[in-house]
Amino acid sequence: MESLRIALNLANTELVTGHDPDGSPTGPAPEMARRVAAAVDRTPVWVEYALPSDIVAAAHSDEWDICFIAADPARADVMDFTEPWTRLEVCFAASAAIEARTDVVIGVRQFLADLDLVVSDDTVTTIDQAIGVNLNVDDGLSLPVMSFIRAEA
User: Fold this and answer.
1) Cα(45)–Cα(37) distance, rounded to whole angstroms?
2) Alpha-carbon torsion, ordered 60, 66, 72, 73, to 10 deg
3) DSSP state of 135
4) Same domain (yes/no): 114, 57
5) Range of the domain at 127
6) What's the pLDDT score for residue 70?
7) Rounded to an integer, what distance in angstroms lies between the CA atom of residue 96 and that of residue 123?
8) Could you tell me if 111 and 70 lie in one domain?
9) pTM more than 0.85
């Protein structure tokens, strides 16, 4: 049986949750990939990347056949997208002791060209636009934010 090389974004722990004892990836993206491979009678071969930008950078290198990353108009020049098969909700979290403010800047990663954001009186900005406004953004926010939310609950 031929193989289907599947690029996985390990940074998205909502979609790739870990690995089985045999090393196979777990989570919704690997499960969907297994179904796609079965539908086309192929054996899945996992090609793991630390970041979605690494997957995009490898798009023309013949390292993978399909990938599971967010549809982003900035990526459309190197790959085609299906309709979304899942949606992820993300949030900013703050302690209940902090007074709510509307004069804030919300930063998004530079590679996010399309962001649906429902807010009022807030500003959405890219990292480049945020220089000089004391915006502190870290790519590794997921685990600290979830720990904070659990501690506040």
Assistant:
1) 9
2) 50
3) -
4) no
5) 105-152
6) 80
7) 22
8) no
9) no
> Residue length, the chain?
153
Task: Give a yes or no: residue 128 inside a domain.
Answer: yes
What are the pLDDT digits (tens) for 67-121? Answer: 988 877 878 888 888 887 777 665 555 566 767 777 766 655 554 444 444 443 4
Do 14 and 71 fall within a single domain?
yes
User: Do both 69 and 109 map to the same domain?
Assistant: no
65, two tokens? 């056949």
**Distances, alpha carbon 121 to alpha carbons 100, 106, 111, 152, in Å:** 12, 11, 24, 26
144: helix, strand or coil: helix
Give the ranges where the chain is alpha helix by DSSP (H). Answer: 28-39, 52-57, 127-130, 142-152
Per the structure, the count of domains in the chain is 2
Tokens of 128: 């480049």
Rounded-to-integer distance, Cα 48 and Cα 26, Å = 12
Contact yes or no for 6/33 (Cβ under 8 A):
yes
Residue written as token pair 């993978």? 64
